[in-house]
């Protein structure tokens, strides 16, 4: 099922870039846009939203206050902050009030997309600018996964065999095996039980 996404930013160029990037992905459906905190809150009150991607440096309502209100209005919505503000300073604050991810606008499109996919699937993603410094060792591992690797990991952790995954993703079983070997190496596990433990710990799967 495609994740319903709300984009919130007062910079038209950033809104366009995010919209253009996510529109090319089968995982997301952009259902709305807002240019300030008031617009964001009003939209979420009236529409079921899976993922909210917002800047915290916006007019009218302070971005941190928006996050606090969103946690009350729509507690099941996932919140990813994409901002030009310093992640080392503001990322931990976003996390402390219930945000699920923070990434700088200067990050590559691949990293931003990985963050969107990660947060939408139920776990956190806090990336410090374009460096490899993240807030925990598991986050560092998770941030290295490509969108396709995220998909393979989730299917594996949910108990699907390679043959089924190849059908789901329209790739060969050999390619699935390659991804499987790659993610095992990144995580540092040697069997499916250890992979499932990692995924449960990091909320990658509900299995």
TrEMBL record:
Question: What is one Gene Ontology biological process annotated in the Swiss-Prot or TrEMBL record?
Answer: regulation of DNA-templated transcription
| InterPro entries linked to this entry | CheY-like_superfamily, NreC/VraR/RcsB-like_REC, Sig_transdc_resp-reg_C-effctor, Sig_transdc_resp-reg_receiver, Tscrpt_reg_LuxR_C, WalR-like
- State what protein this is by name: DNA-binding response regulator
Q: Which residues carry this modification: 4-aspartylphosphate?
A: 55
- Origin species, per record, is Polynucleobacter cosmopolitanus
- Which Gene3D superfamilies does this UniProt record tie to the protein? 3.40.50.2300
Q: Where's the HTH luxR-type domain?
A: 138-203
The root-end lineage is: Bacteria, Pseudomonadati, Pseudomonadota, Betaproteobacteria, Burkholderiales
Which residues belong to the signal peptide in this entry? none
Molecular function (GO) terms for this protein are: DNA binding
The family database entries (PROSITE patterns) matched by this protein are listed as: HTH_LUXR_1, HTH_LUXR_2, RESPONSE_REGULATORY
Q: Outline the extent of the Response regulatory domain.
A: 4-120
> Could you tell me the keywords of this UniProt record?
DNA-binding, Phosphoprotein, Transcription, Transcription regulation
């Amino acid at each position: 099922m495609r994740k319903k996404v709300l984009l919130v930013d007062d910079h038209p160029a950033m809104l366009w870039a995010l919209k253009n990037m996510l529109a090319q992905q089968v995982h997301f459906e952009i259902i709305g846009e807002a240019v300030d905190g008031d617009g964001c809150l009003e939209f979420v009150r009236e529409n079921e939203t899976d993922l909210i991607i917002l800047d915290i440096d916006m007019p009218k309502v302070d971005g941190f206050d928006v996050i606090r209100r969103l946690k009350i209005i729509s507690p099941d919505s996932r919140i990813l902050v994409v901002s030009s503000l310093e992640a080392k300073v503001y990322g931990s604050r976003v996390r402390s009030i219930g945000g699920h991810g923070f990434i700088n606008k200067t990050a590559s499109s691949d990293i931003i997309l990985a963050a969107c996919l990660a947060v939408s699937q139920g776990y956190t993603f806090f990336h410090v600018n374009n460096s490899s410094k993240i807030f925990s060792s598991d986050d560092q591992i998770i941030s290295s996964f490509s969108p396709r690797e995220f998909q393979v990991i989730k299917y594996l952790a949910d108990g699907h065999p390679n043959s089924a995954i190849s059908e789901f993703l329209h790739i060969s079983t050999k390619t699935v095996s390659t991804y499987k070997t790659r993610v095992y190496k990144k995580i540092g596990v040697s069997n499916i039980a250890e992979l499932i433990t990692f995924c449960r710990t990091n909320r990658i799967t509900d299995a």
